[in-house]
Design goal:
By secondary structure, this protein is α/β, with parallel strands linked by helices. It folds into four domains: 77 residues, no CATH class; 310 residues, Glycogen Phosphorylase B (Rossmann fold, 3-Layer(aba) Sandwich), CATH 3.40.50; 283 residues, 3-Layer(aba) Sandwich (Rossmann fold), CATH 3.40.50; 109 residues, Sandwich (Immunoglobulin-like). Helices cover 39% and strands 18% of the residues. It contains 28 helices and 29 strands. The strands form six sheets. Strands 1, 4, 7, 8, 9, 10, 11, 12, 15 and 16 form a ten-stranded mixed sheet that branches. Bound molecules: pyridoxal-5'-phosphate (PLP). Pyridoxal-5'-phosphate (PLP) binds next to helix 8, helix 23 and helix 24. The site of pyridoxal-5'-phosphate has 12 residues, from helix 8, helix 23 and helix 24. Its EC number is 2.4.1.1. Belongs to the glycogen phosphorylase family.
Amino acid sequence: MKAIRRFTVRTVLPESIAPLSRLARNLRWSWHRPTEQLFADLNPQAWETVHGDPVKLLGSLTREEIQQIAEDPATVRRIEELDADLECYLTDELWYQKTQTEDAPRAIAYFSAEYGVTSVLPQYSGGLGILAGDHLKSASDLGVPVVGVGLFYQHGYFKQSLSRDAWQQESYPVLDPDGMPLALLREKDGTPARITLPLPNGRSLSAQIWRADVGRVPLLLLDSDIPDNDDHARSVTDRLYGGGGDHRLQQELLLGMGGIRALRTFSRLTGAPAPEVFHCNEGHAGFLGIERIAELMDPADGSEPLTWDEALASVRSATVFTTHTPVPAGIDRFERAQIEHFFNAGLAPAVPTANVLSLGAEDYDDGDPSKFNMAVMGLRLAQRANGVAKLHGVVSRGMFRGLWPGFDEDEVPIGSITNGVHVMTWIDPRMAELALDPMGSDLNRAARWRRIYGVDDAELWAVRRELRTRLVEDVRARLRASWKKRGLADAELGWTDSVLDPGVLTIGFARRVPTYKRLTLMLRDPQRLKKILLDPERPVQLVVAGKSHPADEQGKRLIQDLVRFTDDPEVRHRIVFLPNYDIAMARTLFPGCDVWLNNPLRPLEACGTSGMKAALNGGLNLSVLDGWWDEMYDGQNGWAIPTADEGAHPDERDDIEAAALYELIENHVAPRFYGETGDASEPGTDVVPHQWLAMVRHTLATLGPRVSAKRMLEDYVRDLYVPAAVSGRRAAEDGHAAARAKSRWIGRVRQAWGQVSVEHVDTEGVAQDPQIGDELSVCAYVTLGSLAPEDVCAEIGYGRVSETDHIHERKYATLRPTGDLGGGRHKFCGTITVDRSGPFGYTVRVLPAHPHLADKAELGLVANA
Ligand SMILES: *Cc1c(COP(=O)(O)O)cnc(C)c1O
């Protein structure tokens, strides 16, 4: 029988256990083990059936069961204690309150297209979403006043299974928000709050707003599946990155523009402070800047409207943009005509569509004039921008240098903050007990992790083995379930009970399957891989997982190749592919692996975070020097897979790098794991490998604090959020007086810049054979046209020169204006000291200068000598 109507009946809890409701709804339980354990203990069997979901658990209990819980004094006490603990967690003075001054923002809006907080709120596809989830959790732990904004996808991302012949199958279960840890944002009269965007042809797109509580951090998720909408509008939030074209564009309009409206509604209804900083996590949410410009150009409160340029100056000052992709193909782009079509429908009536188009225009060398580029818009709308690892910062500066012509690549104003992972989500509780000092504080994170140095080898090895054993058990259960789906009967699956061995060196490899991640690099020489797996003395076992984008046939073929290899009876006890990689699997997988493998095509991995999660559990990384590993590999915390020349043919590169990978496993990783004495023990017998454990201990103590997302949050607060709050406030003061002044100044400078040039440079003090320590005095004759010397900075750049006269390891010294020569000509002078031997060179350039510029390259204007 099929129901014609459905609704969710709320569980009414007796008063003595009423706090259970808050404990279930605030997602802090997902990283607070005592709370999670409470729910598990309420009814272990039901807990398993609902896959560890507290809201579903409470919904599944009968009235009798609830009554029983309410009458058990021990449980009631436990609930009270945990509720009191949550109350403290939500209200205590934390790191932010203790360390920050008045400059710090009162609220920060964080926009992301996906969030991976817990497996019970499956609103993520992969790394970007998990990172956003970890960002919110760490903000909560540190007391950073972040509000998250995203979309609620009715189907989330797909679930993966395999067909008999190893082809990826996708399914899209329907999620019922009423049965999830979400609450609808409501008007005072109880009706659901709504935001609405106009669409072309007189249509409109409305959304309701779900609120999730990630500890202290509210997360607002816009949901278009409501009766006010026509069918097309209802399906805008149907699935993550669905459709493409107009569907995707509408998702992004809703996220960015609708997201700002949702924030305003949230503040109006709850009294939450208005955000002072807006963080756009990847380009998808870029339209948030347009909505904020629209607010200033057509103010609802009757204040004086700003012009486009003024509003842009004001909005930029408080916006932070993070780019996550090192490949141009990974960037979101739309047809200009699409953008025109939607904005002409009145999305932001006060904002000229041409100006919106100009923000996303690829009006630089190699750009495509028919495209609207979301990352380019993101960079133009944000005064501060960053990549997600040091190397990714370098790659991003190269990728976007066209936006700052005239500047060297290393001067492109995109910095980097290396991603981190939320420790309490990803560390196994057993490892947390060993590795983390319980009395530690966020004010000295490194000290907390030094605890591991006091743990002896036998104890550490026992815990590592326990984690590996738990993974082996989980793998067996998952493999059996997968084979049943693939059509085998129980009678044919006896062998799955002995798949993997808790005493064997375990290597993990799990990630999405775009080509650059090279899922099948390990299969390059199948015979050699077999030999490694089946080595009688030093066997290796591999656990592999990963989803391919549904439209990516090539990715699915890679999965098929791999699964077919794992299906071979000769090796199937040593290598497995687990379908449906997700947070739940990851939390057993990372702790259980001795080694985490990552072999992307360098430098295409922006950061990568899975290796960090392995490291938190004492896993050693075996990885190409890409993303985070490029800056954190130190020779003792794992292994670096050497990379072939970037110029090499792809096949050749794969051959070289696969051979290097095999060599490392055979000659370094396995010998160290099994003890290097040569008299290798029987596999499965436990000889404690002291050298291996020294690496494990070193990894935990030194990487633990550095890969922590709290370190990442602190970097964001210090380098981006506080500076953005300061400049945003300054821009907005006195009716945006500073923004108006700055935009007038920018207009004047841009207009005059064509006349600015360095005419001539005089140098004194270079002797016949210059020596270190010599002073060089330099005067430049500069034409400024209608600009004044205060509008610019003249500087001398100097340092070692290459054969092509390029100046490396540059330093700068400012030249002071020393005379007005009339006719717009000025003299600037200064001195430098020759501070190195060998080829030395210098040059002079003039840049716009204004106290409200965050970077000297900000306007992209420069006059080089
Ligand atoms: C950490 C994680 C990712 C991202 O891993 P990368 O190393 O960045 O590719 C993807 N999916 C899940 C389930 C994760 O836990």
